[in-house]
Amino acid sequence: MTVPARLPPLSEMSEALLFQGLDSIALKRIFGVAVESSMRASETLFHQGDEANRLYLVVSGVVKLSQVTANGTSHVLRLMSAGDIIGCVAVFNCCPYPATAFVEEDAILISWAEPQFRRLMEDHPDLTANALRLVGARTQEFVTRLGEINGATAEQKIARAVLRLARQAGVKETNGVRVGTTRQDLADMSGITYFTVSRIVSNWKRLGLVEADRREVLIKQPHALLLLSEGN
Amino acid sequence: MTVPARLPPLSEMSEALLFQGLDSIALKRIFGVAVESSMRASETLFHQGDEANRLYLVVSGVVKLSQVTANGTSHVLRLMSAGDIIGCVAVFNCCPYPATAFVEEDAILISWAEPQFRRLMEDHPDLTANALRLVGARTQEFVTRLGEINGATAEQKIARAVLRLARQAGVKETNGVRVGTTRQDLADMSGITYFTVSRIVSNWKRLGLVEADRREVLIKQPHALLLLSEGN
DNA sequence: CGCTTATTTGAAGCCCCTCAAGCAATGTGG
DNA sequence: CCACATTGCTTGAGGGGCTTCAAATAAGCG
Q1: Cβ atoms of B45 and B97 closer than 8 Å
Q2: Residue spans per domain, chain A
Q3: Nearest nucleotide over every DNA/RNA strand to the B200 CA, judged by C1'
Q4: Chain B within 8 Å of A92 (Cβ-Cβ)?
Q5: What would the pLDDT profile of B24-43 be if each residue is shown by its tens digit?
Q6: How far apart are CA A145 and CA A78, in angstroms?
Q7: How far apart are alpha carbons B157 and B164 in whole angstroms?
Q8: What top-level class would CATH report for the domain A152-229?
Q9: Which CATH superfamily is domain B10-148 in?
């Protein structure tokens, strides 16, 4: 349910990595052909396999990227929040969206039609160069995760997943950082069952490292989790 | 032991994805500042953490990219063969090489100094665009692998690793496809121990799916392995 | 209140890791 | 050409971490 709205504030979003180093004329042109839309939680931006016809920039809110693999299991790739670009690989590479984008928390997005953004990249080489850096960083992130999985225990994986979520979509509170997530999502991010997640999170509760209710985890001792994630 | 040699044959290497769509003038300039070198098996192109000062294009031979993770285990990211680009993410992103490049089979390489290649990208936007596609494809590959790991048995993982190797660096023979690899490498690609690899490969031998000697595997029934990799 | 969704907990079992030992192929030096 | 070390591979036994299956509890929602 994308609802076109007023032009977004240039000054805010032009800070996104994708637009670094571009002059105000270029920025004006880029944002001139952009569309702003707002989406409610539980809506879907696009499904895995859809034709990649738009590139999105997250202004606010949280969007979950998840993927269904050949064996039928689904796993969470990443949570996207303010400043993140969604759909870059698919749009730059002319392939279907490789993942599903699901709105976790009410979000405001700016988007561009694929052919238009391609034109913009042709006319502004800096934009292409920025995109290259961005995709490169993404690659590194996934390669790192590939390595982290090796030989890690379930507890390490979950600790990492929780901390990653806290970084990407956590809310600071007086007694810690609150993360909105289900045990199932944590399991899908870590490649383990939600039974194991539940057992381990319960244990953390007992130790006072976190508080955890249905659909959320409050991290009380981030440092302790960090130590756990690195294997004590 | 890099040995500068004659200028490489343009007609051959300009087919690499990185150079698609570039006119002969651009190609002449690009290859004009390139350096050809040949390396023997067991030599190292660069180590993980080294400053990324060169971009390599593989003309022939096989180069193994491997990474040591925080927990001390090493894992094989990929084998690179003719047409593959090595060091792209690091050079494009101005960060140290994230992996070590080890020559598995005698190789001939063409390489560019980092600042020079950066200049080339500035002057030839198509080159940047190609690089973006290339890195994007690489990202997808790793994301796919992240998903495949979930819920896969050791046998599935090894089957996939062997097939991937066959694709990336296999040699067709009369009775199958020969892959030069140790059990240890297969283990490092799959995130399992080489004991388990040995047990499973031995079992495949017993079933007649492969022949396997020290440092090599001959795939006799690729289709059977493919089925295994997908979980029967 | 029922119905669905999210979570907890237990018990059984299997897959894979760990550790230990031995074998075969390949060098290497005398 | 043999002695010996090294490297790569195989095989066994034991144990543990995680999955699977089953069941119960609790929270949200019409």
Answers
A1: no
A2: 10-148, 152-229
A3: D10
A4: yes
A5: 999 999 999 999 999 988 88
A6: 11
A7: 10
A8: mainly alpha
A9: Jelly Rolls (2.60.120.10)
